[in-house]
Specification:
Distance between the termini: 9 Å
Helix content: 10-25%
Mean pLDDT: 91
Shape: globular
Largest sheet: 5 strands, mixed
Radius of gyration: 16 Å
Number of strands: 9
Length: 200
């Protein structure tokens, strides 16, 4: 459940009155995703837990596009695993306090599409829940994590290409330096948000 803040978004806890920019919890719309919400733990490059609890909220249009992509992956015996979703501005500020480097953390004065509810950090898992090999870990900051990096095993390049192809075909853009990061094209101009959810 979201706590209402000052914004033009509609916050609901049921599936009524939903607009494309409404924030919703992904798990309320599909049980076919795997979650490893890194920033709700200290298993991340910040070495700090910055979310109070692990939830994947996104704008409704992002959820619809993500479910469509996941349906394609399911036909191949795969599923999307999520590392991060919508990130309130207060969390962005907390991350910036820990690592004040725009190469690693978006400056909260400018914000990122994570703060707009239109970005996801993801990978793919097989039927046994094992992650496909992508060449680096999530949030690895080096050239090896980039889509243009070629010195990788062919299987890794194939896995990255599959992830990118399906996500792009379902309305997302890739991020050149991070194989795991995808932005919903139609969400790039949505307003920055500081909507927060309650931990149960």
């Amino acid at each position: 459940m979201f706590l209402s803040c000052h914004s033009q978004s509609t916050i609901v806890t049921s599936k009524t009155e939903i607009t494309d920019t409404t924030f919703v919890n992904l798990k309320d719309y599909s049980s076919d995703f795997v979650y490893d919400m890194k920033y709700a733990t200290d298993d991340n490059f910040l070495k700090a837990k910055v979310y109070d609890c692990a939830e994947c909220f996104l704008r409704y249009k992002t959820v619809k596009a993500l479910i469509a992509a996941n349906e394609e992956f399911k036909k191949k015996g795969l599923r999307i695993k999520l590392f991060d979703c919508y990130r309130p501005l207060d969390i962005q500020k907390r991350m910036w306090t820990i690592v004040s480097n725009p190469e690693y953390v978006a400056d909260p004065s400018k914000g990122s599409i994570h703060n707009r509810g239109g970005a996801v950090d993801i990978t793919l898992v097989n039927k046994r829940g094992k992650e496909l090999k992508m060449g680096t870990s999530f949030d690895f900051f080096g050239p090896e994590a980039g889509h243009l990096y070629e010195d990788l095993p062919q299987k890794v390049k194939d896995n990255r290409a599959l992830l990118k192809e399906v996500m792009i075909s379902n309305g997302f853009n890739s991020f050149d330096s991070e194989w795991w990061h995808y932005n919903l094209k139609s969400g790039l101009k949505d307003k920055l948000s500081n909507e927060k959810w309650e931990c149960k």
